[in-house]
Amino acid sequence: MFKYRDEETAKKILASIKDTGIESKFMHVCGTHQDTIVRFGLEEMLAEAGVEICQGPGCPVCVTTSKEIADAITLARNGVTVTAFGDMMRVPTTIGSLFDAKADGADVRIVYSIEDAVRMASEQTKPLVFVSVGFETTAPSTCVPLRKGGLPKNFSIYSCHRICPPILEAIFDMGEMNMNGMIMPGHVAVITGLEPFRFFSETYNMPQVVAGFEPLDILMASYMLTKQIEEGRSEVENEYTRLVKDNGNPIARKLMEDTFVPVDREWRGFPVIPKSALALKPEFAEHDATIVHEKILSQTPEVEAEAKGCRCGEVLRGLIKSEECPMFGTACKPMSPKGPCMVSEEGSCSIAYRFSGRRT
Fold it and tell me: Fewer CB under 10 Å: which end of the chain, C or N?
């Protein structure tokens, strides 16, 4: 599981947490953190030290709403080439998935970057839409072709990008979770820096640690949070110093500021959250799919927020573990998913299913 030296370090960290005698509950908002926690059995190790960790809305595909998926399906079924990352293709809705649309003859394609989609658009005359998904980590890459200019006239973007601070504020304001601390996503902080998180320590007295993605990163972040609790502090600390700087990446943030405008939008499992999503600025209207294809999108049928019995929304709010959903591992499996948390590699249900009963 661990290399020898890492194993010794892990034991020391866990012992130090246990020695405080503090029992605590932490939330993280990162699918990669969840993968590390489950893959390496950290949940059980930390539980023995008095720490419970739950996952929040840290999977961008999972928080994308059924309405947004249905919009993409409607575009595809009305003659538009739809491109998206692979995880988006199998997300189910009550009108099917993008793969179902492809099976019905629609032009739906997997891409690995926005540049792939731009190239495909340049090779045809039919309209092509890139469905962009992700948090602050991936949003800057969507900006680059738009800022360069010279895009094919038949190319447009359907933005499903979200940003982290508003969803964190919603979690705190909803008051459903009795948390003692937050493990913050290192990849987001690489872009944003630490400043956006300080508000939560100051307003909600919430200890926070920005963490990397190795097992020792998670354990060390848990120790740092425990020490804050023990010492009565509520601060933003940076465990991921090897990559995260206090001011983040100013160039990437400037790209986002120049390209996007924050808008109100629902998240799966959550109500409308103010200024939590990113829409293209008016200057990019000719490449904004919501404007270019407004007539087609007006035909999107009503869809249920979740399939009957699916509890992805509660999983994303940290209220239940994946295994507590009655469909987990029975009606809902990776090859027959009922919700996005079983589809995406970063989804809690997919991670729980893949690593159930085994560790690497």
Answer: C
Same domain (yes/no): 124, 181: no
Report the distance separating Cα 235 and Cα 237, nearest Å: 6
Closest to 222 (Cα-Cα) out of 66, 3, 16:
16
- We report the CATH number of the domain holding residue 106 as 3.40.50.11740
d(CA 91, CA 99): 9
Helical (H) or strand (E) element with 277: strand 270-280
Would 224 be classed as within a structural domain?
A: yes
Q: Which helix (H) or strand (E) holds 51?
A: strand 51-55
> What confidence category does residue 360 fall into, taking pLDDT thresholds of 50, 70 and 90?
very low
Residues 6 or more apart whose CB falls under 8 angstroms from that of 175 comprise: none
Structural domain of 29? 4-57+169-185+193-238
Cα pseudo-dihedral 177, 181, 183, 189, rounded to 10 = 100
| Count of structural domains within the chain | 2
For the segment 209-227, the average pLDDT, to the nearest whole number, is 97
What is the distance between the alpha carbons of residues 6 and 13, in angstroms, rounded to a whole number?
A: 10
C-alpha closest to that of 90 among 79, 74, 75, 101: 101
Q: Are 352 and 321 in contact (CB under 8 A)?
A: yes
Cβ neighbour number for residue 302 with a 10 Å cutoff: 9
**Are 175 and 30 members of one domain?**
yes
- The answer to whether residue 37 sits within a structural domain is yes
Q: Is residue 214 part of a domain?
A: yes
The model's pTM: 0.93
Kindly tell me if the per-residue pLDDT of 52 is higher than 70.
yes
